[in-house]
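Researcher: Here's the sequence for the chain we discussed earlier.
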Amino acid sequence: MLKLSEKQKQLLLLLLIILLGSLLRFYKLDFQSLGNDELSSWNLSNNAVSISDVVKTQAEHDVNPPGFQIILFYVINYLGDSEFWLRFPSALAGIFSIYFMYLLGVKFFSGKEGLIAAALTAVSWCAVYYSQEARAYSFLLLFSIITALLWIKIVTEEAPADFRSYLLAAAYSISAIITISLHYFGLLLISLQLIGMLSYFLIKKKSLKNFLIAYGIILLVFIPFIPPLLIDFNPSFKTYIDTPVPFSFIKVLLFFFNNSYWFLALAGGLYLFLFIKILSDKGESIEVKNKSNFNLTVLILWLMLPFLISYIVSVIFLPVLTERNLIISLPAALLIFSHAAVQLPFNSLLKKIFIVSIIFLFLFHLVVKTGYFRTHVKPQFKESARYIAEGEGKYPESLIIGYSWSEYMFNYYFERIGSDLRVDTIFGEKKDIDKLQDLVEEWEPEYFWYVFAHREPDKEFLEFLNKTYYMKETKKLTGAGVFLYKVN
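Model: Thanks. This is the structure I predict for it:
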């Protein structure tokens, strides 16, 4: 009988974890309708004719760097613009995140932590959700992990400067540049890594050559991002983000742990156990203890500092703190959780049962408890368009009045289902009532459809519709609604 080494067992388990994570990320990839932000991303890249056009359009119409839009530009032009293909890059990034999470766990602690962290990433609601979204967050998670892995390698490198160390610095620079190009919270993470590396090198009196190489390259490439950055962070900019409250960090941790208070309580208990163990543990050698404490300190700072900085900026300057922006700290939260689980004072069998049970519960919660793959959670643009298209035979030549941020958010789906229908105009605010009356009088339709998604129409506008016209049909959907009115 073939006997596997410990390393081979770990690699086999890792392969199974990656297969599970791949299944979760590709299963029903096109089940959810594209959301508001996804349709916005599609529109920006779909209407561009070149990379420079993507960069220019992104700077004018979005608050994020253009990295992900460039990826979508190539996807749309060479693969297609269906829901599956638009989300395909994010799903791939999510799968790679599992693998690099394992490597990060190995580098910080051991293969045990690496496997647990990889498994948690594979079944994490947060990681799966953004792996099935055509936005930058899955890539942001991936490159947060990669840059952290390269950063810790550079920081803990004991060998003298040689070709390998220069290659490592160059690899970190490339990864950091990609991270910055994806999202401004990527810039925040890289800035914190810069401060951390410089502080460590100065304290340890290590050569700054690799530091200067790495961040010199990053700075040169980052210069073009400065003008749009200053524009995007104008305090007068209107943002949908609310000013955070003092307990916002609890919401962030809840977001990291499947939006479950049970898992949050479990994580809190493991974090507390680890803290107590560090204070009381006297059995390890000074060298091992110092390394473990240093790595834990890095992870705690990685978990806390992005939140604290974005919280302060949000309170005194411009609201920027959202749970999804802080996905850059998810790896730290899961690694601390994994290390605490490994340190539990159980025998080997009980510990394995406990860890496997936790991972199974995460998976059960994702698939069964939340009904992730059978419950619509995004505004149903797709279903709204399909409902109207199916009713067109009974009510031909009807006006279609929509309410979202733009007509293209519905028209994308009319085109996808092969319909010639298009939204004629966008109305939904109180000030639009007179415009609606004028349009109906001009077109004289027998019927008109009213459809909204992502945005709720003003109460006064809906009251006017219901008082003035006869509602013949209505369809309530997640984050959306469709009404058919007969003109009296």
